[in-house]
């Protein structure tokens, strides 16, 4: 089989798989265009009988989405920055050595992440109240998210550091660099892609974080989009089309950015070791 | 300096709380209220967490079955004395059910905010198609089952009836009226009537007269299948009326909940929220003023927000839409029989016991009688 | 002459593995020291310990008069060429070269100029903008070299820097490195497995085996007077031939264990019948006419590089000799070999240590 | 002081700072809450004592009471099934996709990026969509299965006790696949190409190369992914809330959802905390396995 | 003799870079071919193309009579030793060695035995349970070697397999590889930058430069009759000396551009005043007494390896000569050099191509 034929075949298979996998996304899009009860129709309708485009404008306006998205962005960036600063170094050390302390460290890191946010939020809330952190609610959420996601980041980035040959760092040391300098000049750039991927994953998670935000941020003007999304749900109402429209507006841009970025990151991961 | 109050409720921007607060603040009477919206699932946990760390709001809107939990521990302020002297809030003006839910130990720990109940909606077009009289909805349980059978049409994807037996408060909310009509209460949940009620539910499930997803579907989603024409009847509340008017492409009617047999005692569920003031509020007087202001707006609540006031003294003015007015009349009638859940400070656990029984019976893992016996046992041990 | 690098009693363990055993070594300022030894003997380890990349387990390491055991690498001011190159894959060749300068804060233009100068020496001028992954093995090695020589460090540490280069480039680089060394007055420690490199470049050669320094000294001293059989076999290529022998009954001569049992009369201080090894280098054996003293051996194989011909004999142990240019000798033939008596080495068969012999009195002659 | 500064720049001090600060942070923000939870499982807790550490001590009463409940064992079993099922599914599908996209045909990296959608979508939305997809009557899954002739009548994924847990597992596999895929892709691209070349020269076919080179070389990545997958799976909450609510009759209830239900629906915080301690034991086991797996890691 | 490997018109591009240019090469079954050339000339690329690790851009590759352009590597049944070793880092040495056997489904015990046998040859017996990261550079290379020789493939491809080994081991391995080659009757292609390796091991040597095959043939043929100046300079170490010269006005002799302008009378078919290069190998120059024909040059530097002494002259271009053993010549002295006329090579100064000359009629003598 020729190269191009093979490529076409692979692309076709990939498209089919993507179509299957992305079905929920598609469903989100069409639901946002459906009327209230149409989504419960049997047999299911794959295209809205009359597309309700105005839903989008309505949702954007009524919920002041711009502000929500801004808050989400602030929280996400804050968390990623904090995690990257704290977690990268930690991951590096845990990758560089191979001894009992590293084992203990890894073990603790995983253990600390075990409980779901819904169970962690009470003690954190209590603690934050006592030190007065709740007066800076977005900071409080950033700290909480950082604690929750850092183990994830550390474990992933550690694996990346494992792939950076020790000798390169040694060469830098001999070249007159301090440990600090070698870390920043050599090790970090070489682990850059892995760190970026992990940071982006964390960013997305923090962008959609919900449990901490809704408990700790009481001022609507500081709440992130995830909390805003929930405001379409009541005990006896769930405005699914609005929720989906809202979600569409908040998912699509991130997804687009990621598709663009990961292309560079994952496929650029070829500059491995030499000799 | 204005007195600052905080108020938590689950109302969204088209619902009463935020709008009433806006109006209240606009009066500039020296009291300003700050509003926070909380999600249904979180009201109680947020409130507890805040209360135990001293961060509780002054006023909260609390779901009526949870009221007793706070009241019994004196987390809410005893309003009895203030109500006595109030010219706006008079206990006798309220439906007895809602008022009872705000009462603990003969004292008033809150004021009903709004109320609702459930009744039977039915699809008149399908009635006609099945050769049934669209103006004669089923009156008794047996009729209900019979009608459901006739309306059931799997080939057209139509179920006879939709309701909600989900394993959360909604399940209890829908089941309890049936049990009560059968002469039981939550304390005697394994009474004969309750067992019969559960058996009827099971029969509906077994004969596939209702979707098996009734077990896991919320009232809102169940009603949506009715709106979409996939169920011929549904048991639900007045909050659905507006959606039904826009979504349902057929003629529909409402009826009181069917009773076990002709002439039997009626009963219905009672939902919606009460206002309460936290006992550690620094400004109880001002907070009560706010409640009085809210109560003074009960008269236009249905008109403005589509919610029923818990008031027996206020007529609900006609809207001009015949279907809507007819439905409203049904619900107001049904409201008279509405009974609160509890009140009991342990209501969530009691409710859980009832849900477990419903689910165990409907999935066929236990006989209705045995399931309810077990629930009764649990409830007894919970109540101590 | 001041000592630039001094190691005393240095030991290094990798876990339980004893990689360096009681190393004592003094390297004067400006010296060019070659470190040779079989693969795995600890050369790289020693170099890495000097550089500070491995902490030594015991002993003292003094550089320029200062104890450096615990000094971080960057404060030792040494430049190292890694056996595995260790090029920075995310930097172009130019950036690789100027990295150490940039750390020191050298100006951009200046660093660039330095890089171009070095690149001209190592023939990398056209590759300055490539990334390491786009270079061939030899090109990478040259980048590694250049990276070290662009700095002007206290000492250079080279770990087999030329092993992937072709002969011509190698000769060229050899000269460049040595010239550089002389110009900078630097001290260099140079690990190599190339005889010619070690002998021609170094002032001082250190021979290691299994973590131990077997002998050290000036190159020709090692060639002329190897301290033991290992060193004798290791220095010189093709390796020295070892012929088992024993002292004659009167103790005045050695009887070689070869066809015809040639006898060497010499001044020996050994008991009769003592087993020894007689070493003779391939280049010291020559063909002789049948009438000259010597011994006859059959030829097993002939190899020629053009400039020289290697003859391997069909004896046990086999004997290799090098003849200049081409030779008419062919496999299967029997040849008559001879050597100058002053060129033999005698080693104790048990301890493998060198046995000094007085002048060899007579040339070898067949006992019979 | 200078000594300290210099070890931070050049020596062990650097490592200690890098590790010390994050661990202190983690201890304060994750360690203490965990301890709070563990403590709570030995105490009698109600809404009024949530704010303090000192509460009536009840010993192991909470545990005893918990294990007396008939649903405890089934729920723990469900948890195990859920975790194993989800992780196995996510990992296998994720690995398959990562390998597929690794062949690097044109367009591969674009499409691969799209697969991250499940990571970006808010839990509430994912739950709702799967709720519809898995619905018995109007669900799209049943629709496709029916149309393709795989089933006769509808499967009530959410309401049939036999299927309800698997319904959530399916949704969770969908949710976790992208995370597995993207990380495995990164891991794959870190394997030096010459190893494959060597293996190919050694006569290994694609399948053999996968088992003998790819898998072992990915050990640390795989260990990390499975460990993280376990944690995510144990934290999965939205899907239960949206799809089955743990029902019917607890047939799809799992520890984390039950703990939440006990704590925040029945306000029995002590028992809720007790379950979370049991979950901690689960994770402790997994963490130990992960740490062990790092022993065989290959350093670049 | 059947052709085992045949390349015709093979080209290979890396993007725009033309790495192999129109390569034509036939390798008979059982041959041992050495591939030499300067660093970056495309040796590894050619080897990798044979192995199937690079797809060739155009041309035909036939192995054992079958066109293999698009055959995956594993179906070509070749064994390769990588320049970068490419050891499996997650396997012990033993597992590395037996990998190919296990793939083929060879029994465990059998594989283990094979590994032990090979390890004994390559001196890895003690290291079988180590991981590659715990090995020294040379040990790794030996593992890479062993991994190839444990199989019995159609052909071996070696990419500088011995570059990190010390001389003794190298000589040993050289013999082992060659013996193995002979024993298995395999075909081998061997990339090396070591002259001696190429000349002594190979039946056929291919010299490449910048992606082009410059010359190929039997080793001594290349040594004796290099086709151009590049090959002449590349084969032989130290490299051939090139002395500029031009034909005399009568066209019957060459006048060398050296002090005293020595003249070589010879049979030439060149116009008068034509510029050429005269090549003479260092080993073909020798010291002569002043009365012999020859020329005087001052000495710049002396290097000795013990076995040989390299003398570099202070002329432009400099001339290198090799003397056997030690020499008393010292820097600064003037020496009188001579050579046998049959040993000279003449190249066109413009095209660098070899010019065949008839017998050189007279020995060099100073023109004056
Ligand atoms: N992936 C690549 N992209 C671009 N150029 C390349 C690539 N790989 C090799 N080259 C170039 O191709 C040429 C031949 O490389 P090759 O590795 O075959 O050299 P070589 O003869 O093996 O050299 P050495 O003896 O140094 O190993 C070199 O100039 C190298 O820079
Ligand atoms: N990290 C390690 N753990 C255990 N043993 C090691 C380690 N590094 C090296 N060794 C062993 O220490 C010995 C010395 O290794 P070293 O790298 O110094 O050898 P070398 O003399 O440089 O050899 P070569 O010439 O082959 O490079 C070897 O036997 C090697 O196997
Ligand atoms: Mg080494
Ligand atoms: Mg190469």
Explain what the structure shows.
The complex is a heteropentamer, with one copy of chain A (275 residues), one copy of chain B (384 residues), two copies of chain C (368 residues) and one copy of chain D (300 residues). Chain A contains twelve helices and no strands. Chain A is mainly alpha-helical and 275 residues long. In chain A, α2 runs antiparallel to α12 (240-267). In chain B, 43% of the residues lie in helices and 11% in strands. Chain B has helices spanning 16-26, 43-52, 64-72, 80-85, 96-101, 124-129, 141-151, 169-181, 192-206, 219-227, 241-247, 284-296, 301-305, 322-335, 347-362, 368-383; strands spanning 3-9, 31-37, 59-63, 103-104, 107-108, 111-112, 119-123, 233-236, 252-255, 273-277. The mean pLDDT of chain B is 89. Chain C is an alpha+beta fold and 368 residues long. Chain C has a seven-stranded antiparallel β-sheet. Chain C has a six-stranded mixed β-sheet with strand order 6-7-8-3-9-10, with helices on both faces. In chain C, strands 15-19-16-17-18 form a five-stranded antiparallel β-sheet, with no helix packed on it. In chain C, a hairpin with a 5-residue loop joins β11 (241-247) and β12. In chain C, α3 crosses α4. Chain C starts with a strand and ends with a strand. Chain D has one domain: MetI-like fold (Orthogonal Bundle), CATH 1.10.3720.10. In chain D, 71% of the residues lie in helices and 0% in strands. Chain D has 15 helices and no strands. Chain D has helices at 2-10, 12-40, 61-68, 72-102, 108-114, 117-120, 123-133, 140-147, 164-189, 193-201, 206-217, 219-235, 238-244, 255-264, 269-293. The mean pLDDT of chain D is 84. Chains in contact: A-B, A-C, A-D, B-D, C-D, C-E, D-E. One magnesium ion is lined by residues 43-44, 83, 159 of chain C.
